[in-house]
Amino acid sequence: MPSRSPQPETPKGLIVGIALGAIIVLIAIIIFFIYYRRKKRKEALSSKGISSKPNQLPVLGPVSHETPSTSGSLGSEKPSPGILRLSQGVFSYEELAMATNGFSNTNLVGEGGFGYVHKGVFRDGKVVAIKQLKAESRQGEREFQAEIEIVSRIHHRHLVSLVGYCVTGAQRMLVYEFIPNNTLEFHLHGKERPTMNWSTRMKIAVGSAKGLAYLHEDCQPKIIHRDVKAANILLDDSFEAKVADFGLAKHSLDTDTHVSTRVMGTFGYMAPEYASSGKLTEKSDVFSFGVVLLELITGRRPINRTQSFLDDSIVDWARPLLKQALKEGTYDALVDPKLQGDYDSSEMTRMISCAAACICPSAGLRPQMSQVIP
């Protein structure tokens, strides 16, 4: 029989190379698995308003007067899956005209550069707020599209809910749930308004913070409101806060560093880096929220036009007083004199600490919204 030729031996170097390659692949898989587990854990903690690192930042809560039904964590208020289907929320012009008595002045509850807001009552008794955008406004068209896109996919007890919309010819209208108790600006700064007590101010601060934290950290992609101010915080009959007006809101991915050539917002509330360069992140909203906290603490408007120094910013005025108050533990120079000293000192300390952190000139040093709530 013919003899078999000897089989060539596998080079030892090739065997070693294959073994090393297998080890490297295994190590890479292990590293990826560890990274993935940590990432998911961090996301889970974030959704509950908990930092995976020790939190050295001041928090507004706990709030002693808040009932269990209103003191839940962010994790208890998840977005509805997918985008809200508005097939049942498309209204005709005639329906909305009938609900508002022909958009009469007696039903007019608000007015701004965007247009008008009327109170409406449908045949079934449901009460709504109808935002009618100016037909000639190109910006109004953009705001309409933004609000439809953004508000239809969010659901949170401290954000105003969209009921539906109307598109008829040049008419653009948004239909919201009706919030009956006006705005924070109205109650804080309106003429001859009774003084808002401290517990109510604290309740509004916590509720607003929870709504903004949901936008920044529970929505994917996250949402930057871009016009956080006292006039955009609506109050219900129990003075629960609901953040409203998403016409200027923008989506943002974690990797985004958005720079806008069209700086939008309200003077006195805009973060310095956004006002000067158009650089927009969620920390811009944090700064604006800090200004709202200063309004709650001091009772002052963001821009003081009544004193000898016109356009005196509440931020510039308050910064040295915040530092002094936290250092010495005395608040008389800072706190709204209408409160007449009637406030919880530990809660005041927390709110002052939060305000100071939120209005930090450096955006990177400001806290996340979930870090300033319980």
TrEMBL record:
Enzyme Commission number: 2.7.11.1
Compartments, record wording: Cell membrane
Transmembrane helix among keywords: yes
Region (Disordered): 56-81
Residues holding ATP: K131
Domain of life: Eukaryota
Family the entry assigns: Belongs to the protein kinase superfamily.
Protein name: non-specific serine/threonine protein kinase
Organism: Hevea brasiliensis
